[in-house]
């Protein structure tokens, strides 16, 4: 029994839980843009701490702002928790709870925003 526990601890040290993390491309082939139904994209997905969102978009046309619930509800860009404009941004969930993302230029215009519920790590 002690040997099994020791092997399990070694396995977790070598292969941390983050190795079980999934990477999700927001909007898949359509990417992060104003023409995607992100409610439909979220349907059936479960996100956990350690998972990664990948935002692919045309950097001259969009950006990704991490906002709070007010920023999400009202499409307000400031204050924000981070602004990204590389065209290929990766966000790793470090904590559980709702995570909110908007495009500063298209949130009001076309509703380009995403609310992601993140659960604690799966065991």
Describe the structure.
Its main location: membrane. This is Stellacyanin-like. It holds the Pfam family Cu_bind_like. This protein is of the alpha/beta class and 123 residues long. It has a single domain (21-119), classed as Immunoglobulin-like, CATH 2.60.40. Helix content is 23%, strand content 28%. It is built from four helices and eight strands; from the N terminus they run αβαβββαβββαβ. The protein has helices spanning 2-14, 38-42, 69-74, 107-110, and strands at 23-25, 47-48, 52-56, 64-67, 82-84, 88-92, 97-102, 113-119. It has a five-stranded mixed sheet. It has a three-stranded mixed sheet with strand order 1-3-6, with no helix packed on it. The chain starts with a helix and ends with a strand.
């Amino acid at each position: 029994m002690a040997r099994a526990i020791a092997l399990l601890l070694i396995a977790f040290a070598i292969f941390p839980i983050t190795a079980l993390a999934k990477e999700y491309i927001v909007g898949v082939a359509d990417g992060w843009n104003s023409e995607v139904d992100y409610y439909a994209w979220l349907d059936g997905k479960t996100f956990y701490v350690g998972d990664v969102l990948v935002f692919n978009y045309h950097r001259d046309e969009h950006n990704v702002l991490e906002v709070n619930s007010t920023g999400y509800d009202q499409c307000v860009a400031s204050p924000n928790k981070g602004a990204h404009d590389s065209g290929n941004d990766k966000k790793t969930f470090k904590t559980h709870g709702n995570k909110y993302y908007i495009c500063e230029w298209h949130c009001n215009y076309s509703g380009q925003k995403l609310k992601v519920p993140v659960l604690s790590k799966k065991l």
